[in-house]
C-alpha cells in the first residue's frame, strides 16, 4: 500500500536524500526542510520503494503538502 | 504512593537503523569534540612536575591522593578545564569534584602539588567559591587536600584582594560551618600565609608528620625591611643571609599538634591522613537509600550510547528531546506535567536510582498549527512562549513545594520576541520564573545539551540567575552565547553596511568584520571555551550524563535540609488528576 510522505511544517526543501526507485526502510531520511532557521529531517514512514518525488531542493512547501510517495 | 512511582509511564522507542545511518557523521563529530576535550584534560592533569618526580621526593600527587581517598567509580570531576584568566600553568591549581568516601557523598578539592607546590593562582578563588557553593547547595561535607605554598607572588594583583578574591574561601568555610556543613582537611607539605589559612579554616585538621601551617613562611620571616629598591650590594647581602638561614619553617606539627593542638591528629604516612579522612567521613550524617527511594533503581530501558545518534551536532537540526531523556532516567519512565499545555517544554517527574526528581527540557521542532496562540507565526521548540513559561513557573513551584530536586536540560534559542510576544507578557513571565526558582530552595543541576542562548539560558536554571544551581554540565554539542554569531553580526553591522552602500563605498571591509565576528562567536561559545571560562562546570561525554545525574541526585538526597513525605506530595496528584 502506497504511503505519502507529507510536510510536517511549511518551509524550504534544503536537500533530498532519495531518488525514484530507491528502496528505503522506515525512519530513513527522505529530505530536510528548513523553516524558522531550523532544519527538520523528514523520515520515511514505512519500508518500501520511492515511487514519486514531488519536490526538489529549493522548493517552498506548505504544511501537509505531499512530498514523496513510498509503495 | 507505590502506585504512583513503582512503574510510571514508559516513553521512548528503540533507535531504528535509518536514524543510526543518518546520524553517523554527527556521532563522529561529537566523538571528535570529546577526544579534543580528553586531550585538554590530559594537559591539565600533566601540568607541573611529572608524577615520578613528586613520588621520588616521597610525596603522593593530588591525583594519587584522590584515587586513594575516593570510592572506586564514584569520582565526578568538575572544573577540570576551568582557567578563566588563562594562566600560563593551564590551571587554577585546584582539582575538585563530587565523589563518595566510605559510601557518603562529599565535595572534594585539593591543591595540585605538582604545580608550584600548590600555589594560589589567578582564578583559583572563583574555582573555590564554586566548590563551597556546591557543598552548601547539596548540604554535603567539603573535604580538602591542603598542600598550598601560598600566593604566586608575581601575579598577586590578579587574585589577592577584591570582593571575591583569595581571602573569600576562608569566610565561606565559616559560612558552611555555621550552616552545619563540616569541612575536613588533610594537610600536607608547607602551608605558609594563604596556605596557613587554607589549613586552619576547616573544621577538622588531620596532618601529615612533615606538614606545617603558619601565618607567614620562611620567605617572610627571613626577609629584609624595604629600602626603596635593590642594588647589587643588597642582593649579595640577601644571598649571604639566605644561605645562613637555617631555621625550620614555622608552624610544624610540634607546634600545631603538641602545643596549640590545632591539628586534631598527625599521621606518619601520607595514606594515614587519607585513612583519617575516611574515618571522619564514616561518622558523617547521611540517610540510607531506604529513606528517599520511591522505587527500586532501574537502568533506562534504552542504551545511553544512543545519545550520539539522538543529539545532532548540527545546531540547526531538530531532534526529539523525549528520546534523549528516555536514555537518562530510570526505566525510561515519567509522570508528565501538563503535556497538552506549553508544548515547547517537557516538565515531569522522573526517577534517578529510584529517587524522585523534576525534569525540565526544551522540546525541538515545529509545535503545530495555532501555537503560540497569540501570534500569526509558527512556534518552534527551543523558543519559550507564554504557555511554556507559565508551565515552567507552575512546575518549579510544585517541585519546591514537594522538595523535589530539579534537573534542567537546555537547548534554547531564547524567549519569543516581537510586539505580540510582549503583549503576551513573556518578559514578565521570564522574570517570574527567576522568582519561582528563588522561592523553591531545592537543589538544581543544569545540562546545556546544545544551545544556551539569550535570557532563556538564565531563566532555565542557569547559574547566572539563581543560587539553586549546584552545577552546570556541557556536552560536546554545547554552544553558549548571547545570540548566534550571525545574528550578532547583523545586529552590529547592518546599519553600517547600509551607510557604506549609500555612500558608494566598497562593502568588503564591513563583510570582513561581520565574518570576523561570526568566527569569534564560534570560537568563544564552543565546549572547551565554555569550560575554561566557567560557563559550565564540566564538559562530559554523552554516556557519562547519567552518572552525573546519579551523583547529583544521590548527593541531594544524602542529607536534605528539608523534606516532604511522599504521601504529602501534591505534584503527582496534580499530574494524575
SSE map:
The complex is a heterodimer of chains A (about 70) and B (about 575).
Chain A: E1 3-6, E2 11-16, E3 23-24, E4 29-35, E5 38-43, E6 48-53, E7 60-61, E8 66-70
Antiparallel strand pairs in A: 1-8, 2-4, 2-7, 3-6, 4-5, 6-8
Chain B: H1 2-5, E1 9-10, H2 17-22, H3 24-45, H4 51-56, H5 62-69, E2 76-78, E3 94-101, E4 104-111, H6 124-138, E5 142-146, H7 168-178, E6 183-187, E7 190-192, H8 194-200, E8 204-208, E9 212-214, H9 218-221, H10 232-244, H11 253-259, E10 265-267, H12 270-282, H13 289-292, H14 307-310, H15 321-326, E11 333-336, E12 345-352, E13 355-362, E14 383-384, H16 386-402, E15 406-412, E16 414-415, H17 419-423, H18 426-438, E17 444-453, H19 454-459, E18 469-474, E19 479-481, H20 485-502, H21 508-525, H22 527-532, E20 538-539, H23 545-556, H24 571-576
Helix pairs in contact in B: 6-7, 16-18, 20-21
Describe the structure.
The complex is a heterodimer of chains A (71) and B (577). Chain A is mostly beta strands and 71 residues long. Chain A contains no helices and eight strands. The termini of chain A are close together. In chain B, the strands form four sheets. In chain B, strands 1, 11, 12, 13, 15, 17, 18, 19 and 20 form a nine-stranded mixed β-sheet that branches. In chain B, strands 2-3-4-5-6-8-10 form a seven-stranded mixed β-sheet, with helices on both faces. The radius of gyration of chain B is 26 Å and the shape is globular. Chain B has 577 residues and is of the alpha/beta class. Classes of the chains: A mainly beta (71), B alpha/beta (577). Chain A binds chain B through residues 8-10, 24-29, 34-41, 43-44, 63, and chain B through 16-19, 21-22, 314, 316-318, 364-366, 369, 378, 380, 382, 413.
